[in-house]
Amino acid sequence: MTADGGNQLISVHPEELKFIFELEKQGFCDLKVINNTEHHVAFKVKTTSPKKYFVRPNTGVVQPWDSCIIRVTLQAQRESPPDMQCKDKFLLQSTIVPSNTDVDDLPPDTFNKDSGKTIEECKLRVVLYSA
């Protein structure tokens, strides 16, 4: 599933997380998450490398036709990845929630596919640039 704004619940810009990589320095990338529906949509961000990144907020509820910014911070690294290639990936899951849902009230199974809800997933890859 791509973030091309088809009939998805949300679209994400940019479609890649781009970080300027400098040793011993944090980098960050802001993601804009846009709700394309008249529903309230909850989202959750997962990554293959949770120790390397801070994601704030990593869960949230976006109002209908609204958007929010997620800041992803790459922790300061002690060594460069080989050839500046980064295999880390992010997964943004989204699902429709009742209109009065607050992010603190999301049930634990909100993003569990076995709960019978439709969970959309958008995969984002990481691209590193040297400073």
UniProtKB/TrEMBL annotation:
Pfam families, alphabetized: Motile_Sperm (PF00635)
Top-rank taxon: Eukaryota
GO cellular component term, pick one: endoplasmic reticulum membrane
PROSITE patterns referenced in this protein's UniProt entry, alphabetically: MSP
Start and end residues of each MSP domain: 9-129
Family: Belongs to the VAMP-associated protein (VAP) (TC 9.B.17) family.
Protein name, per record: MSP domain-containing protein
Organism: Citrus sinensis
